[in-house]
Specification:
This protein is mainly alpha-helical. It is 46% helix and 0% strand. The chain starts with 46 loop residues before the first helix and ends in a 23-residue tail after the last helix.
Length: 232
């Protein structure tokens, strides 16, 4: 006989991400069909939805046709592991790079499907990526970063460190700053002729600023706040 499993939240309820094997499953489920509300919980969704969710997990969490509710249900587990479990056990932070890799993978598949998921997953990615940022991140090659509602934390950290050190902003970093800044409106040539646009902008940047512009250091500190998607 299966007994009910427990995974308590700070509010003492069971965590929405908990897969409780004692709960009933339907014989069939379709994860392309919406079967849950805005804040899903495994224990509260229907047996049909539970079957669909487990099938999506078994299929590798990669089908772009999956309803975003199933993606969020899995994401809740990543949030719990990265934040609550890491706060209780410092050794869990060693898993942050693994969680970061999974978040990047999910964003590649579902980021353009749901603006809400892109926001929450991008915010958690910033959180777990902090440990990956070296002291002089502005000297490193700029990774592939999605354009979102705000300048990525990676770019903000790189610019802040350069300002702190009085170091010139390299052309590659300046280019990423322009292209990822949501306040900048990029015209057609930047998307149709990417290589030519990047090369011309880098050329003009070096012509005007030489080794790079130097930002004025100020007292404003970077602040990172992650507001979880999970009700748990």
């Amino acid at each position: 006989i299966l007994t009910r499993f427990n995974l308590p939240t700070p509010g003492r309820e069971n965590d929405p991400c908990l897969i409780d094997p004692s709960l009933p499953l339907a014989a069939y489920g379709d994860y392309a069909v919406r079967e849950m509300g805005y804040w899903p919980s495994y224990s509260a969704i229907s047996p049909f939805a539970r079957r669909a969710y487990l099938q999506w997990l078994a299929d590798g969490r990669r089908d772009p046709q999956a309803n975003i509710g199933y993606v969020f249900l899995f994401f809740y587990g990543l949030e719990r592991r990265a934040i609550l479990d890491a706060a209780a056990d410092d050794s869990v932070k060693a898993e942050w790079p693994i969680i970061a890799a999974e978040l990047r993978r999910l964003l590649c598949i579902y980021g353009d499907v749901s603006g809400s998921f892109k926001h929450y997953a991008g915010s958690l990615l910033d959180w777990v990526s902090l440990a990956e940022h070296p002291e002089q991140v502005y000297l490193k090659p700029v990774p592939e970063l999605p354009r979102t509602y705000e300048l990525p934390l990676y770019i903000r950290v790189a610019l802040g460190q350069a300002a702190r050190d009085g170091a010139p902003i390299p052309a590659e970093l300046a280019l990423a700053w322009v292209k990822l800044n949501p306040a900048m409106s990029l015209r057609t040539p930047s998307t149709r002729c990417v290589d030519e646009f990047d090369a011309l902008l880098a050329h003009e940047y070096r012509r005007v600023f030489g080794e790079g512009m130097v930002l004025t250091r100020n007292r404003t500190m970077l602040k990172l706040v992650h507001r979880p998607a999970s009700a748990g």
